[in-house]
Automatic annotation (TrEMBL):
Residues 453-489 are annotated as: Disordered. One of its GO terms (molecular function) is zinc ion binding. SMART domains: ZnF_ZZ (SM00291). Signal peptide: none annotated. This is Dystrobrevin. GO terms for cellular component: cytoplasm; plasma membrane; synapse. Residues 455-475 have a biased composition (Low complexity). Pfam families: EF-hand_2, EF-hand_3, ZZ. CDD domains: EFh_DTN, ZZ_dystrophin. Keywords: Coiled coil, Cytoplasm, Metal-binding, Zinc, Zinc-finger. It comes from the Eukaryota. Residues 242-298 form the ZZ-type domain.
Amino acid sequence: MEEGGQRDRGRRAPATAQAEERRIFLELGEQNFDAICLSTYRTACKLRFIQKRCNLHLIDIYNVIEAVRDAGLNAVELNAGISVTRLENLVSSLFNQLSKRLPTTHTINPQQSTVLLVEFLLAAIECEPDSRLTVLSVKAMLATLCGGKLVDKLRYVFSQVSDPNGVLVLSKFDQFLREALKLPTAVYEGPSFGYTQTLARSCFPQQKRVMLNMFLDIVADPPQCLIWLPLMHRLANVEHVYHPVSCSYCRSNGMTGFRYRCLRCRGYQLCQNCFWRGNTSGSHSNKHQMKEHSSWKSPATKIGRALSRTLGCVSSREPPHPVYPEEPERTLNLANIVYDMTSQHSHIYYTKCQKVIPTRSINFDANKQKRELIAQLESKNREILAEIKRLRAEHDAVCQPSPEKGSTNPTLLAELRLLRQRKDELEQRMSSLQESRRELMVQLEGLMKLLKAQAAGSSHSSPSRPSPSAVRSVGAVPSQTHMYPPQDSLAGVGGDVQEAFAQGPRRNLRNDLLVAADSITNTVSSLVKELHSGSHKQKHTPFVVVLCAKLHLRLAARIFSWKS
């Protein structure tokens, strides 16, 4: 098969193949990645460029698995060689399916991508002497260069290098490393990340049994030979991340990608291009420890997250990868089942295990388990329905009144209506009493002003008799004061009356009226005594006496109506 692959490759146009191979490496050289001082970043940047140039970043590991299965390579031994034509068909199917999935606004050239990727893979294979194109080399390189999540890619790799019990086979993992490390060698990074025979054992030095979750720790703590692999995925994640700060060396307004902050020089930050190339300024040195940032967080966000960690609201450290079951899932291989329909009862023979299992017994056990499960579900369903029925009956009993309660319902409603009617009548009467009280207070104020004026008058001055119109004007004041709210019922009344009739928290209207009547009686008595003494003889004395008597009679009538 390998010889066929060499013949297929020889039949291809050598000028076209060499031109495409030179083209991708020429474009790689134009990016000036060799100026990057750190070999890890240099290797990751080169392989990321190859990945994007071949459009492999648009293909995830599941697309690769599907294409490998369609090509029939999933049932082939890993060490089996394949031809270049078969490799071209596999890669071509990958990009043809990709072009169908992409939207119309994003198109690719499947043929060009196929030629570029095939030539790069063949160039990587030829970097090592006496190497050949195998199924493992194709799977390892495609799984390493494709897009998607790193955890998913490592799970697929582990499925290829582990035994049926889910334990890593060191010899298979060594073969995987040999093939995967041909990619850094193809971009001239072999001295830093080339293959050696001790690499596989150095990746897991203390573990005798390496299971899936231990193998996935490569994501957080990769071995030295694969340290560029997680970095290549981080590069893909931060390509469009913007940091609104300026670089301390190139003074660029904002950074894109990684941001590096010095832990010794306060406020010293470098963009990824300056840091990778070792550019420094001022007192900063390349020996200073730098912290890599893949996202921008405002100071307020940092303070909030720090407080949340301090108070235990959020976990300070997230797991690097999900935890998967150690035992692999066992599936039934239907290719080994043979049906025997010659006898009365059909049987299933497993050719590998040489076990004979009656079909009827298998069906009986399966049906029995299904019937038991259905019976349990039906029983649970009946319990739920009974509980719903009981709760609904209780709800109806509470919401709907009983017949006994229903018979008394009209009486209760009639009593409620009477109470409401009585309440309205009392409120109306209270309102009228308040208005009458205010009228009396205003009239009393006018009277007390007249009495004070007479008492304070001198002997040579004789105040004129108040005309009936003036008295009527005093009595007409309430028509203007009805606009005041009830709490201001004494507004506009003199201080003497306010002091005697001010509303307290719990004043009694009847008591107020009685006090007012007594006050008027005492005032009139004192006035009559003073008039009879002969010191003052006023012409309007009879009128004042008549007015006081009328006011006294009104107060008495109001008190009588209140008592009734």
